[in-house]
Design goal:
Pyruvate-ferredoxin Oxidoreductase, domain 3; 8 helices; globular; single chain; 193 residues
Length: 193
């Protein structure tokens, strides 16, 4: 019998806290006793370019890269980046948790292209298990807009077989002490979705 591996993809643009979120996710999975492999792809991430992080966990994991069409969960921090990464999910049966945020790339800002309309509707037509999260508003309500990544982590955590105690321990280990309480609130708000 093949061991079950959970394949999670985190996508967005540089500066959104994607790498921290993937570290927290990986740490929570390790604390829960899983074998974890992680990989990141940075496209000019310091300048708002695409960032993709692959996290795979299970009894035994050999490769950190989620094969195309094998993703279980796509965890999108920005809508266009979320749509770009949909081919990585299991067709029709993958889960999409996306931040309701549009960040215009330089080509849109310079007027060379137009930011596409209807992205959430497009996702809904392809994946029945789709949750759209207003991460910025919820993070602001928690105390800091920069905790939007933790709101999204909370929303994703409900869809994974990792106990809440491990998520909280991972937050305590990875988040600076001065931001910990805000991030715990943000996580709990997302976890209720």
């Amino acid at each position: 019998m093949k061991a079950q591996i959970k394949n999670i993809l985190l996508v967005g643009v540089g500066g959104q806290g994607i790498l921290l979120a993937s570290e927290i996710l990986s740490e929570a999975a390790m604390l829960a006793g899983f074998d974890v492999k992680k990989s990141e792809i940075h496209g000019m991430s310091q300048r708002g370019g695409s960032v993709v992080s692959h996290v795979r966990y299970g009894t035994e994991v050999f490769s950190p890269i989620v094969p195309e069409g094998e993703g279980d969960i796509l965890f999108g921090f920005e809508l266009m980046e979320t749509v770009r990464s949909l081919p990585l999910l299991k067709p029709g049966i993958g889960t999409v948790v996306a931040n309701d945020l549009r960040i215009s790339p330089p080509s849109v800002l310079m007027g060379q292209e137009v930011y596409p309309e209807g992205l959430t509707e497009h996702i809904k037509t392809l994946f029945a298990d789709f949750l759209l999260v207003d991460g910025q508003k919820m993070a602001t309500d928690a105390g800091n807009v920069r905790a939007a990544n933790t709101v999204l982590l909370g929303a994703v955590s409900r869809r994974l077989d990792i106990a809440e105690e491990y998520w909280l321990k991972a937050l305590e280990k990875m988040v600076p002490a001065k931001a910990l309480e805000v991030n715990k609130r943000a996580f709990q708000m997302g976890h209720m979705l």
